[in-house]
């Protein structure tokens, strides 16, 4: 690694060539990182031309975070550079993961201004290992679908509601995980989802129906989405045809007459499903799992409930 200069350099000249300070070069020399090739009669150190390239390499390794003992061993060929680099990269991966966790919690704290107790809980949720995360989600889904053992449709629904945080998540995925985990611990949210699951099972009848009946909430979405997108107010006469078609479809699906009792049942189903936290859970789930953002259910459900309620009051 000779630069073609055969002269010896003083520490001052070496500092000018490498951009390092005289103090740093002297320190490296004392540690055996770069040895002087000679000394003047009065004891001043002189370095050969290879010292310039050696110090440039040392500076690079220091900026990459390697310690001086490792650097000396690499220069003396006691350690292989690629092995040290691999070990150092692995250690940095761990540090980066920790920093991402901290950043996710701090970003969420800054946005939501939680209490000290909530902040501590968010920090604990962010640090959960994979097995503990799975247990948390299993407990949540057990509380929602607890009465559906052996039901293949509900097994598929469970899988579709299960977050899988990657081994190396982004900051956005970590923030989403913290918020989703908090949702799963909310007793009111759990109760609402469990009621939705129970309502759907009730609509299917004893033992379920084959083929499965359409869900009331899904029918409301199918019928009301176009009206919501078109800006039709649920109270307006233009909404009458949508409500009539929705109720008729539900009556056929549930094998019930279109009467007051049916409309009360539909309102109950829609009010239960109208929690916007369900949409938020699915949005967070999609972000964590790398899925496309889902369509929101709440606007169509709220529109349908208002439209039914207005007509029931007439």
Tell me briefly what this model is:
The protein contains 15 helices and 2 strands. The protein is mainly alpha-helical and 314 residues long.
Q: What global shape is seen?
A: rod-shaped
Number of strands: 2
Number of helices: 15
% residues in beta strands = under 5%
From N to C, what is the helix and strand string? HHEEHHHHHHHHHHHHH
User: Level of helix content?
Assistant: 55-70%
N/C terminus separation:
92 Å
Q: Which spans of ≥5 residues are poorly predicted at pLDDT below 50? A: 1-5
Provide mean pLDDT, rounded: 87
State the secondary-structure class. mainly alpha
Task: Record the strand order, biggest sheet.
Answer: 1-2
Computed Rg: 33 Å
Please indicate the count of domains.
Answer: 2
**Main sheet specs:** 2 strands, antiparallel
